[in-house]
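INPUT
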Amino acid sequence: MNSSVIVFPGSNCDRDIAVALEKMQFKNQMVWHKETSLPKSDLIVIPGGFSYGDYLRSGAIAGKSLIIKEVIKAANDGCLVLGICNGFQILTETGLLKGALLRNKNLKFINKDTNIKVINNNTKFTNKYKKDQILKINIAHNEGNYFTNPDHLKELNDENLIAFKYCDDKGNLDEDANPNGSLKNISGIFNSKKNILGMMPHPERMIDNLISNTDGVNLFSSILN
Amino acid sequence: MKFSVTVTLKKDVLDPQGKVVQNTLQNIGMDSLKSIRQGKYFEIEINDNEETAAKKKVDNMCKKLLANLIIEDYKINKI
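OUTPUT
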């Protein structure tokens, strides 16, 4: 399977995701933001980091970059698109995913391993997980507080478009388990066709027991499945 | 022609920074303070002498990039 990782000035998880993809046997290419065409890709990843130093709003400038037009075109043609952390922020700024990521409620940059629950496991990104499975995945962000309007929240629920929610280690979805104030503990969502996933947690950091755990592996094996 | 643009979070969107500034001002004795919303300010110069057309261009800039209309409102003023 061919994957492309988009690299912006200020991206800093691009090499981590490349290592994860290659470990999972993807044939990966890095694509600089000034490119005007994409290599043949089954999966496009927009990595985490601080594209353009988070100037204006997180993801706002990257959302208008040259390569993004091609990403939008490919996404509309059904290509799988995964946005992690800043990548999720960029996807909301492009309009490929609805809603926005606000400043964390406690105004702090949060870097910690958090529990998330798999809400919809019937997608190209999550089919190797069990429904309601609890994963421990690292988060590292300042703007991860997901916000959307009531109509879209209804759509997310009715169409089963919520991928993951923050939970405690028993799977409870209460306010105490919500690290950043995110609406309904949401930590990852799909678009209506479910070929785009945006998530704040970093699955690419959870692929090796030597440095963390392997809870992120099944996201990549789901895509390969 | 010069315009100012002010971008603020919408009323129903939580503004934790504004809240902290508000609390701090109240703590140092600014007792009649009711509320504070924090925002962003831009000064924009346009090469256009016709005000309506120039303002329309600034409005387009706000919609396309300066404000995220899901969470933010903006105001344009000629300066």
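end of record. The longest strand of chain A covers residues 110-118.
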